[in-house]
Structures are given as structure tokens and as C-alpha cells.
Here is the input.
Amino acid sequence: MLWNTILLSLRELRRNVMRSFLTILGIVIGVGAVITMVTIGGGATLQVKEQIASMGSNLLMVSPGKRFGPGQASGTILFKEADVEAIAKEVSSIAALAPVSSQSIQAIYGNQNWTTQVTGSDNQYFRVTNRSVKTGRQFSETELRSGAAVCVVGETVRKKLFGGQEALGEKIRLQKISCEVIGLLQGKGQSTMGMDQDDVVIIPLRTLQRRIAGNQDVNLIQVSVQQGASTDKAQRDIQQLMRERRHLSASEDDNFTVMDMKEIANMLTGTTQLLTALLSAVAAVSLLVGGIGIMNIMLVSVTERTREIGVRLAIGALERDVLLQFLVESVVLSSCGGLLGIAIALSASVWLAAMLRVPFVFNASIVVISFLFSGAIGVIFGYFPALKAARLDPIEALHHE
Amino acid sequence: MTNKNALQPNNEPEKHPFIEFEGVTKVYGQGQGAMEALRGIDLRISKGEFVAIMGPSGSGKSTCMNILGCLDTPTSGTYRFRNVDVGRLTRNQRALLRRHYQGFVFQGYNLLNRTSALENVELPLIYRGTSGRERRDRALHALETVGLKGWETHTPGELSGGQQQRVAIARAIVTGPAILLADEPTGNLDTARSVEIMELLTSLNSDQGITIIMITHEPDMAAYARRIVHFRDGLVASDEPASP
Ligand SMILES: Nc1ncnc2c1ncn2[C@@H]1O[C@H](COP(=O)(O)OP(=O)(O)OP(=O)(O)O)[C@@H](O)[C@H]1O
Ligand SMILES: [Mg+2]
Here is the structure.
């Protein structure tokens, strides 16, 4: 019986292909937009998470300044090397920790120049960030202590400055100092939130402090926790230690931040997710508009087909049959819109993912949900017109012109 | 379809008239503007009859036909169809009576546009839940009966008036109804087409034993029936066998 009704409504929709298509356009656009947004957003989020995971899951970042608060600019107390030593000494379960200070500086070699992130740190940096020196060597103890003019160069910088030439042993100019290239970093070959991780030059911390920045500050402390040890505990211990060192009373908030990778990931993906949610909301509204479009067309259709409904009632259709027919018709309409939307969204997502260089992540649940939602729109917005049709008086309907 | 039994007459239908009108009236509207379309009709029609209903415009023929076809109920009086009091039935029960026992032919054909002749004829079978092959075979057979073999895929727009009316007749008889109700079936046709339709109805009546009640304005067409009922001002003016 239901199958016969579906058959009847398919015949009906086939009689008016063009109008059927225009009717479902709202649903097509709505479903298409929702799925595209969610798929691309999901891909971007996954990408950020994967990259952060590749940096090491047991990583903690200790940065000066309040958590997500203002006041980063003035009054923020930066760390000193003593802080780094204290953490290394006091907090157990730490595998490695690296002080980091960075500046954006123009690097010059011959007539080539390239502005890059110059990071001052020590050999622990390579361990903490899961990076290794591909060719050449790390810093020696003497170089670190004395603040020697030596550097390890990232792949992007090497390409920009040296091209096909040999880089090891050459000297590049960073502001006033001439730095010998002693090592080349293993490339990561990917970017985090649009930042190229290979676009770096690493020099000893002391070299950066004394010969470039002219201070004793440490911008950031990266800590990697021992395998199997609790990151939470290490995080709490560091927080406690820093509060003591900074003489904070119980009523004062932290004026520094200890974040684990999960929090950093959430911070970075939060923006993507918010954007996805907002755009999806807009798309959902267009689904609603699509539903109203279907209701409108179904009402027109009932009026247009009043005579036909009269004939159907006269030759033995029950109220139920007519109700079901129009309901099925609107559900078939809206579901077709859903299917078309899904098809368009998936092709658009594949294309967009390639364009934006994010992975294409097929999200089955959003596809199923969108499809069911489009069907539900058909039921909700088709019910009133269908009821109107079913309640028609057959004699009046037959005489309708 | 499901509670067909509820519509079965409680007594043997053969002992009662097939169709029985007792003092049937129909009043449209209320109070001052009330319009008495039928003012007390008594009428009995047996199985297998071929009845023509004639009468001036506004005399209540169509009103009577709507009641016969269970599309409407009398204001007072009783209409029994196969000894079932139709006036007491619900809208759905009356629809089931139509579905199982009656076929309709309208003056304006009332076929579905842009739908093939075959699909039009299949329609009542779809509502009866007849599926697949059987539905198709029965529809093809009905079209053959009305002489439209080879025209199955044509849509109403591609058929002449006479052919459209024959599709409508095929649609009315495809379920094998006990009675065929036709309101001015030849009203839109020229004489030659009208004669063809009347000959078709006559053969359905004599070959398949289908009871036919037909409204017509034309004495020539009424002459094909075996009994002619004249209406005047909502009353039966005369009821006599057709003169040969
Ligand atoms: N729905 C209605 N509401 C009010 N009056 C109606 C309605 N239907 C019919 N009538 C009136 O009832 C009377 C009988 O109408 P009916 O249609 O039965 O006449 P008829 O004999 O079929 O006429 P015709 O030969 O023109 O078809 C007419 O006066 C008509 O105006
Ligand atoms: Mg009439």
C-alpha cells in the first residue's frame, strides 16, 4: 500500500520535473551548505589536532601572562633562566625542558634575504619538539654557554637562502651577527594553522639574549613529561612552583599559564569550530526556508489539483490515501533535495579540501542526519497541505475549475 | 478495503432491491436561502438494469446521482445500496463502497493530465491494493474492452474526446464494479462519438451484466437504455420502459 502511494507520488513529481526541482532548491542548498561546512571544518580541526599530536602528546607549555586574559602587553613578568633551572630541579617526572625566546628577523646570505622566526633555545629543544638535525650537528656545551654565533636552519629557510647550494659551514647574517650554519633540521613538511614549521632558524638561547634581544628574558618554557607519568600532576607541580617563586598569595590569580597540548589544541580548533557552527546555523536557516518553499508549492499544488483530488476520492481513495499521497509527495520531494544536496556537498567538499589543503574527512553522521532532517522537513511542512487535500469535499472538488 | 465486511448487507441482498430510494430529499443551505433540490424521491433499481435519467436543468438529476454514488447523503429519507443504509455510513465507509462496487464516468472525463491512459486506468486498482502484474493486466484488458488497444501509452492530451471518455469508462469498469454511474457521459461529444459510447455502455450492460445509471439530455441517447426516469422540480415525473 505504501509502495503504491510512493509510486503515485513519483508519477506526480515526474509530471512536473522543472517545478519539482525549483521547489527543492532551498533544501539542496541548505543540506549542501551544512554538509560542506561540517566536512571542511572537521578536516581543518583534524589537521590541527594531528599536527599538535606530531609535536608530542606529553608536552606542556609554560608561558608568562594570565590565561586567555588581557594585559599581555604591559606588566607581564617574563621568565628568566633561573625559572627554567628551578623547574628542572624541583619537578620530578620531567623528561626534558627547553627555554625558548623568539624574534622575527631578516636572515641574509649573499644577495638572498628571507624574514624568518629566529628561536633561541638549547639542545633540549629538539627533544621536546620531536625534531632532529638531519645533517650537521646540534650545539656544543661551549657554544651554548658562550653564546656562540652558530645556527641550525629549517628546510624552508635553507631553500630560500641557499637554493641548490651547500649550506653547512656557510655564514648567514642575522642583524649584526654572522652565524655559521652547523646543522639542518629534519623537515616537517606541513603547517599548523598556516604557519610553516620549517620556516625557522635555531640559535643558542644565550646568543639570542645577548647579541640580538639584549636582555635575559625567556619567552616560553616547553616541557616534555616522562612517558607514563601524569601530565596533570606535572602541570600542577609547575604551577605550584611558579606561584611560590613569584610570591603569589592565595587570593591572587596566576600571572603565568601552564597549558597542555589538549588545551592548546582546543584553543586552536575552537576558532574553526565556532566558525563552522555559525555557518552551519546560517545553512540551517536556509533549510527552514526550503521547508517553507515546499509547503508553499504543496499548497499551490493542492489548489491546482483540486479536481484531480475529487476524482481520486470519487473512485475510491480514502481520506487517508490522499493524505498519505501528498505527505509522501512532499517527503519524496524534500528527500530528493536532501540527496541532491549530499551529492553536491560531497563533491564540493572534496574540491574545497584540495583547494584549502585540509584533509577530506567523510562525516557519515552529518550526512545521515541531514538526510533524515530533509525528510522530516517534508513531513512537517507537507502535513498541513496534505490535510487540506484529504478533507476536500469530493463533489465540490469535482466542480472546481 | 479492510472492513469490507462492515459494508455487507445483513440479509441476503437478492431479497431486497439493489438500489432503493425512500422519500429521499436534499436541501442545500438553510433558512431563507434554503434550496430543495430533491423533494421526496422513491425509486428502486434492480441488478442488471440500464436506466437513463432525464429532465430539465436544475431538476435534481446530478444531486440524485451524487447520492447514488455515495458522494453525498440525503437530508431526509433513506437510500439503501445492497440493503445498506448509506446515510448512516461514515465518509470513509462510503468511500469503501465506491471503491468496491461502483464506477464513475463524468461529463468532463476527469482524467489525470500528462498521465498515460494505462496509468489512469490503473488508478482505482492502486487504491484497492492490487499490485504489479495483475494491475497491469487488468488495466490492459479494460482498455481493450473499450476498444483502445494500442493507445495505452497516450496521455489525455493526445487523445480525442471520444477516446478520453472511453479511457474514463475503462477506469470505471477496471475494478469489475456492480454498478456504473454516468453523469452526462456524452455531453461533450458529437453525435457519432456519442453513439459509439452508447453502444459501448449497452454492451457492458448486456455482456458483463453491469448495472448502468446514466444522466442524459438527449432522447436519442436515452433510447439506448431500457428504462427512462424523468425528473421535474426534484420529483420523479415519470418512470417507464424505453420505447423500442
Ligand atoms: N452545492 C449546491 N449548493 C446549493 N445549491 C445546489 C448545489 N448543488 C446543486 N444545487 C441546486 O440544486 C438544484 C439541482 O441541481 P442539479 O445539479 O441536481 O441539477 P441537474 O438536474 O443536474 O441540472 P443540469 O441538467 O443542469 O446538470 C439546482 O437548482 C442547483 O442550483
Ligand atoms: Mg447535472
